[in-house]
């Protein structure tokens, strides 16, 4: 039986697409009684290098699981393609910064003292390397924005696992923010609320015994930023 679009999907406030960092946002929305469609579709590294093909302006995810999830999300919205989606897309694609910052990736760029020079981290080569790593995500955002779809990206929890380099994490984040600005892609940034003087995630916003993810409080901070930026005036109303 066809769903009644007017009574079901008109109450949905956003479509959530992304990696495991989307989980905290979804949990926070459920706790707040905010209706949405979507959730995690795979691991962060799956959404960096090219991960979609396009069929008549509709993404076809190369991961079978991700594509199955995406099609199910469209079904919940009674939509046939992304262009039929009338709510904003809230996305974490490409912002799994700890993946880019994996320590072993950067060994050849170290100085004799073992440090990565700031001139390198702030320079054009590093910028181009991060853009190459994030090519799939940047292409995805570029395409959906050109289609006129409302998309919003999310900065990740400021948590750097032992396998990653903190300086690279921060520098990669700067690159991704700059690229988002160049694309005209809004980015939800809650660092002022969720981090300390060390620029790392407060425990109050961290998933317990987890080196990467934020908790439901972090997800709620994201939703608060979503509302305050005026992306979706009805969220939480």
What does this protein look like?
- This protein is an alpha/beta fold and 237 residues long.
- The protein has one domain: 3-Layer(aba) Sandwich (Rossmann fold), CATH 3.40.50.
- It contains 10 helices and 7 strands.
- The strands form 2 sheets. It has a 5-stranded parallel β-sheet, with helices on both faces. A two-stranded antiparallel sheet has the order 3-4.
- Strand 1 (14-18), helix 2 (22-32) and strand 2 form a beta-alpha-beta unit.
- Helix 2 (22-32) crosses helix 10 (216-228) and helix 6 crosses helix 8.
- The longest helix has 18 residues, at 166-183.
- It is globular.
- Mean pLDDT is 92; it is low at 1-8 and 232-237.
List the helices and strands and how they pair.
Blueprint: H1 5-8, E1 14-18, H2 22-32, E2 36-40, E3 52-55, E4 58-61, H3 64-76, E5 89-91, H4 97-100, H5 118-121, H6 124-133, H7 135-146, E6 151-154, H8 166-183, E7 187-188, H9 191-194, H10 216-228
Parallel strand pairs: 1-2, 1-5, 5-6, 6-7
Antiparallel strand pairs: 3-4
Helix pairs in contact: 2-10, 6-8
Notable traits:
39% helix, SGNH hydrolase-type esterase domain-containing protein, 10 helices, alpha/beta, 237 residues, disordered C terminus, two-stranded antiparallel ribbon, 5-stranded parallel sheet
């Amino acid at each position: 039986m066809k769903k009644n679009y007017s009574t079901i999907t008109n109450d949905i406030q956003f479509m959530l697409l992304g990696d495991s960092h989307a989980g905290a946002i979804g949990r926070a929305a459920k706790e707040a009684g905010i209706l949405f469609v979507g959730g995690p579709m795979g691991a962060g590294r799956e959404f960096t290098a090219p991960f979609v093909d396009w069929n008549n302006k509709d993404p076809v995810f190369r991961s079978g699981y991700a594509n199955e999830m995406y099609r199910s999300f469209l079904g919940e919205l009674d939509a046939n393609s992304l262009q039929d989606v009338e709510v904003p897309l809230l996305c974490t694609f490409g912002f799994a910064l700890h993946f880019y910052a994996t320590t072993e990736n950067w060994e050849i760029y170290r100085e004799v003292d073992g440090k990565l020079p700031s001139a390198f981290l702030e320079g054009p080569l590093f910028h181009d390397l991060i853009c190459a790593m994030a090519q799939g995500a940047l292409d995805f955002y570029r395409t959906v924005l050109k289609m006129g779809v409302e998309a919003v990206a999310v900065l990740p929890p400021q948590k750097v696992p032992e396998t990653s380099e903190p300086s690279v994490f921060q520098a990669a984040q700067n690159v991704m923010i700059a690229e988002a600005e160049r694309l005209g892609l809004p980015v939800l940034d809650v660092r002022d609320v969720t981090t300390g003087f060390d620029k790392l995630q407060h425990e109050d916003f961290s998933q317990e015994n987890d080196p990467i993810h934020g908790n439901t409080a972090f997800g709620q901070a994201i939703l608060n930023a979503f509302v305050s930026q005026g992306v979706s005036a009805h969220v939480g109303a």
